[in-house]
């Protein structure tokens, strides 16, 4: 997408210590978050979605380390800052104001001993946004109202355990929004909720993005969440971006066999539960060291080359890229010697210019 950029993740590699070795779990990914857009990262459990998200605001687990890449934050003034190089104190200053994060389980982020009102009010103080107690309280109640908490003045005094899961997630969104961040990172924000509440929360996130001119990075394993929420989506598999496209384009024309597998795994009304589709096969045993396409062991379309060499990211169109050898040859299977680009798809090595 060529829109006004807010965050540009370039060639990000994150490695995790395993014994004496540092093994990459996120491998040279490029993600662009434009202003006022919702960007999805979708992929199976363990593919590196949360590690990517946690890299942005420096909350990686102790065993993990950013080993390469940059994360360029574009200020409205045009100034650029690499978030990777920021000191702890500097990134904490940005958290809440520039960046905010919500997680799957609100209970793990809320203090059970404090009322929700006090918790949100505390943030106004921390971010030096409002010191006057009366005005701060009014602002919190206004925000609780904005996220759809009924009787917000009354709920201000409620403790987290007195609220339903959906209401707690609304409180988390209120906490995230109170500093009016420019980017909301939502890591599986609706996974723990029933489908009706899930739809309401996704609608709320979209509304908040529009009302507050905010972008969001939506992390999910659920293609349904992507289709209802995201403008553009990155499909991740074992630490690598396999395909990226405008959401509608990805759903209409999925090119990577992994994306197609994810889409065909979405249960449809009337499906017999005994015959629900899955993506067969396993990941390579030593996947982190395996040189070929990480998906080839599970791919129905693989060619010999896939076992020895990972495909570059091919540009299919302005808003569609895919990392698959088959896409480099007009989606036809070619023998392993044929590296020409018959379809005229542009090979994009390393970074890309969108
Ligand atoms: N604290 C940790 N210590 C060691 N390895 C970790 C840690 N956290 C994550 N990993 C490893 O990093 C890889 C990526 O994990 P990550 O949590 O980013 O996956 P995910 O895509 O968010 O999965 P899920 O959908 O289950 O949340 C996995 O192989 C995981 O085992
Ligand atoms: Mg995760």
Outline of this structure?
The chain is α/β, with parallel strands linked by helices. It has helices at 49-56, 88-94, 116-126, 133-146, 152-155, 165-177, 195-211, 223-229, 247-252, 257-264; strands at residues 5-18, 21-34, 38-42, 64-74, 80-82, 99-102, 183-187, 215-220, 232-237, 240-246, 313-317, 320-322, 346-348.
Can you characterise this structure?
- The chain has 354 residues and is an alpha/beta fold.
- It has a nine-stranded mixed sheet with strand order 6-7-8-3-9-10-12-11-13, with helices on both faces.
- Strand 1 (5-18) and strand 2 (21-34) form a beta hairpin.
- Among the domains are: 106-180, no CATH class; 253-348, no CATH class.
- The protein contains ten helices and 13 strands.
- Bound molecules: adenosine-5'-triphosphate (ATP) and magnesium ion.
- Magnesium ion binds next to helix 1.
- Magnesium ion (MG) binds at residues 49-50, 187.
Which descriptors apply to this entry?
alpha/beta, nine-stranded mixed β-sheet, disordered C terminus, binds adenosine-5'-triphosphate, binds magnesium ion
Topology:
Elements: E1 5-18, E2 21-34, E3 38-42, H1 49-56, E4 64-74, E5 80-82, H2 88-94, E6 99-102, H3 116-126, H4 133-146, H5 152-155, H6 165-177, E7 183-187, H7 195-211, E8 215-220, H8 223-229, E9 232-237, E10 240-246, H9 247-252, H10 257-264, E11 313-317, E12 320-322, E13 346-348
Magnesium ion is lined by residues 49-50, 187.
Please work out how many helical segments DSSP would assign: 10
Hetero groups bound?
adenosine-5'-triphosphate, magnesium ion
Q: Secondary-structure element sequence?
A: EEEHEEHEHHHHEHEHEEHHEEE
Residues in β-strands, percent: 15-25%
Helix- and strand-based class? alpha/beta
């Amino acid at each position: 997408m060529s829109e006004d950029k807010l965050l540009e993740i370039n060639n990000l590699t994150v490695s995790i210590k395993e014994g004496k070795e540092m093994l990459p779990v996120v491998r040279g990914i490029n993600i662009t978050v434009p202003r006022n857009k919702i960007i999805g990262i979708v992929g199976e459990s363990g593919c590196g979605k949360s590690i990517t998200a946690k890299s942005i605001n420096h909350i990686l687990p102790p065993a993990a380390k950013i080993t390469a890449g940059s994360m360029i934050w574009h200020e409205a003034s045009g100034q650029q800052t690499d978030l990777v190089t920021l000191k702890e104190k500097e990134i904490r200053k940005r958290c809440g104001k520039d960046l905010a994060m919500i997680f799957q389980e609100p209970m793990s982020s809320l203090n059970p001993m404090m009322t929700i009102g006090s918790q949100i009010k505390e943030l106004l103080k921390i971010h030096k946004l409002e010191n006057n107690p009366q005005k701060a309280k009014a602002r919190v109640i206004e925000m609780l109202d904005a996220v759809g908490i009924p009787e917000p003045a009354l709920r201000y005094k409620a403790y987290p355990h007195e609220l339903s899961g959906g209401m707690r997630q609304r409180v988390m969104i209120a906490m995230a929004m109170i500093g009016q961040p420019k980017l909301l990172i939502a890591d599986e924000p609706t996974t723990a909720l029933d489908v009706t509440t899930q739809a309401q929360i996704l609608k709320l996130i979209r509304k908040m993005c529009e009302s507050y001119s905010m972008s969001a990075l939506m992390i999910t394993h659920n293609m349904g969440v992507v289709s209802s929420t995201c403008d553009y989506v990155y499909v991740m598999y074992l630490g690598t971006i396999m395909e990226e496209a405008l959401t509608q384009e990805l759903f209409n024309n999925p090119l990577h066999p992994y994306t197609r597998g994810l889409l065909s795994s979405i249960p449809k009304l009337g499906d017999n539960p005994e015959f629900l589709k899955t993506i067969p096969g396993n990941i390579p045993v030593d996947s982190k060291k395996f040189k070929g396409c990480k998906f080839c062991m599970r791919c129905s379309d693989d060619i010999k080359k896939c076992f020895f060499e990972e495909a570059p990211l091919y540009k299919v169109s302005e808003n569609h890229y895919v990392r698959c050898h088959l896409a480099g040859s007009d989606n036809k299977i070619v023998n392993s010697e044929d590296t020409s680009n018959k379809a005229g798809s542009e090979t994009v090595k390393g970074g890309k210019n969108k």
